[in-house]
Amino acid sequence: MQEIFQKIPKASLEYVKGLIKYENILFKLKNNRKTKHGDFSVKKDFSVEITINSDMNPFRFLITLLHEISHFFVYKNFGFNTKPHGYQWKSKFKELLIPVINNEVFPDDILRPLAKYAVNPKASTDTDLDLSIALNKYNVNVSSYIFDLRKGDKFKALNKKNYIVVGKRRKRYECLEIDSKKLYLFSPNYKITKILNEK
Q1: By C-alpha distance, which of 43, 53, 47 is closest to 23?
Q2: What distance in Å separates the CA atoms of residue 89 and residue 191, rounded to the nearest whole number?
Q3: Could you give the CA distance from residue 56 to residue 101 in angstroms, rounded to a whole number?
Q4: Residue 148 gets which letter from DSSP?
Q5: pTM
Q6: What is the mean pLDDT of the chain?
Q7: pLDDT in tens, 56-92
Q8: Label partner for 161 (CA 20 to 30 A): which of 37, 72, 111, 146?
């Protein structure tokens, strides 16, 4: 539990402690998982476990932690009779976010997109381009993004395959996988490693 508390902004510590003080939740830190930042699960013996990726910056860690704690409260109040990110979860997550949306917890450049996101929170902060970019500024290792590239630029994706940017649709980028010649669509805030063009 102490490891969890060391990962969040100090100004949010007492608030988070108060939320979970009397709750029986097992928290675990996990190595970076490409497909998710956190996870909530109920075991066969009905014990509750929340896992959080350990490599996130304090601001994304706090948002993810509150996201998963919201799942816990929805399960506690409604059991399994709700959609994972349905109305009950959105309402609870918004309720838990509001007390920390302030300058003591978050820097200015995160506050505005976070407040906008909290109005109707989505299943992942990664789907909110403005919030995702603001949060990623505080990562220890800052990556490049698809939106930093131009047509003809090459990049290596998380799956280690190489692509070239061929165009842009309304919201996504069309990229050709160099080996297979197949076309794929990428979100603008997808993290990549740029490949320098050969001269």
Answers
A1: 47
A2: 28
A3: 19
A4: G
A5: 0.73
A6: 90
A7: 899 999 999 999 999 999 999 999 889 989 999 999 9
A8: 37
